[in-house]
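The following record pairs a protein chain with its ligand, DQA.
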Amino acid sequence: MTIGVINGPNLNLLGQREPALYGARSLLELLTTLRTEHPEVTIKDFQSNVEGELIDTLQAWSLDLDGIILNAGGYTHTSVALRDAIAAVDCPVIEVHLSNVHAREEFRHHSLLASECLGVIAGFGERSYHLALEHFKNILL
Ligand code: DQA
């Protein structure tokens, strides 16, 4: 089972960026813990601040991966193109967020991606990624 973890804009700054909201741990630490706690899953990861690179990776990985965990950052709330990419591929995608977007500014309450995803997990810090992975393990292993 191979799962892709795609992180969008500003998530490369995890650990330094608004730690009260997003935690004190880096993206590398998050991914290392994910791999350590789920050794039976092969985890590929990609981060970009560029919308088109996220779409290219989603399209390419969808051809042979079993599932994708996507934190699209701010593009969640703005990107028709990313939504269309999720709709275009057969690979299941779970949308995740570190913060509880529904408890924040109103513009974060709406996701353009959610309706094309298998589900959405938000508000559990980096455990949001683990919960998404648990779901893929439940349905795929
Ligand atoms: C985020 C929530 C988004 O609204 C925000 O733009 C981010 C991070 C989260 O993980 O909580 O960049 O996706």
